[in-house]
Design brief:
8 helices; 228 residues; 2% strand; elongated; mainly alpha; two-stranded parallel ribbon
Length: 228
């Protein structure tokens, strides 16, 4: 029995799963940051050696991604105000992880139930659910990316005002919160690009799968047809 409601839930779940996985790329793939250390010439620009920079970043990310880890930036100094901003960031990181887990479990559960014929997905406009998830996900990075490419600095500021309303603890003083010296705007820009690229790749895969499935349904193979 085709179920429109569960199909819509599945589409939404795929959207959130794709989005959170893409956001997780620069968060959990630390080597992505490591590549920036020498590429952006951070040791010469900051006066910190490679190992000090790497250790500071790892300590910060351990706090942001692991439970029960106290905040630290290695050998780099930080202020109470700066630490409070990273506490706010940790909440967003945790939220992304929670949504990722929930959407993954929900997506997998619905997929298994559909495969076991407990219900059937409804094909809106003759397209599989993954097609619509891909289309919606494709619109998001293209729209935001287009706006950010015009003025990334302004987009970066707007992002912080949206996700940290009423706070200004994200405005760092380099001599008080030295971690900001090893987190240049280029790294955040490239992280945004990585997220967008990841989301675009996932979206394209979903669209292709949706179209292929649709063509398969429209052109069933006649098993009784004989070779000529």
């Amino acid at each position: 029995m085709k179920n429109k409601i569960l199909t819509i839930v599945f589409i939404i779940s795929l959207i959130f799963l794709s989005l959170t996985v893409s956001i997780g790329l620069p968060i959990y793939c630390r080597f992505f940051y490591y590549l920036h250390i020498n590429a952006l010439n951070l040791p010469d620009l900051t006066g910190y050696d490679y190992q000090t920079i790497k250790c500071a970043f790892d300590e910060m990310m351990n706090y942001l991604t692991l439970p029960g880890v106290p905040f630290s930036t290695g050998e780099l100094a930080f202020s109470t105000n700066g630490a409070s901003h990273f506490a706010d960031c940790k909440k967003l990181f945790n939220l992304n992880l929670i949504v990722l887990i929930i959407s993954f479990v929900l997506t997998l559960t619905l997929f298994i139930l559909e495969r076991k014929k407990v219900f059937s997905f409804y094909n809106f406009f003759n397209k599989r659910p993954c097609f619509f998830s891909g289309i919606i996900n494709l619109i998001l990075p293209l729209t935001i990316g287009g706006l950010a490419s015009i003025n990334f600095d302004k987009a970066f500021t707007i992002f912080h005002k949206i996700f940290f309303p009423g706070k200004d603890n994200w405005l760092f003083y380099p001599d008080q919160d030295e971690i900001i010296n090893i987190l240049p705007i280029e790294f955040f820009r490239n992280s945004a690009i990585l997220i967008a690229v990841g989301l675009i790749i996932i979206s394209v895969i979903f669209i292709i799968l949706g179209v292929k499935k649709d063509r398969k349904n429209q052109n069933p193979i006649d098993k009784t047809q004989k070779n000529i």
